Amino acid sequence: MAHLNVKPDPAFLKLAAMQKSRHLYFRWTPQTARFTFLMVAVIPAAVGYLAYQTDGLWDLRAKRKGDMVREK
Which of 1, 31, 57, 68 stands 20 to 30 A from 41 (CA)? Predict the structure, then answer.
């Protein structure tokens, strides 16, 4: 029938079980709070600011030899 031909690696099974129940052992510490704030607020704000500042600054389509890439 459809049995496993190879015995599963016990370390892999332990890793899978750990990843499945990781949320049960999570604790808010100053380090995890800092990292979460960085990933949720600081980095998206920085990317949004850069996108807003450079919006329309460059036009890379249909340029010919000698044309300027910078629009402003």
Answer: 57
C-alpha 39/C-alpha 43 separation (Å) is 6
Sequence-distant (6+) residues with CB within 8 A of 59 are: 69, 71
The one-letter amino acid code at 46 reads A
Q: What residues does 70 pair with on adjacent strands?
A: 58
Is the pTM here over 0.85, yes or no?
no
Task: Phi first, then psi: give them for residue 58, nearest 5 degrees.
Answer: -125, 140
Q: Which of 66, 61, 27, 48 is nearest to 35 (CA)?
A: 27
pLDDT at 71: 66
CA–CA gap between residue 54 and residue 61 (Å, rounded): 16
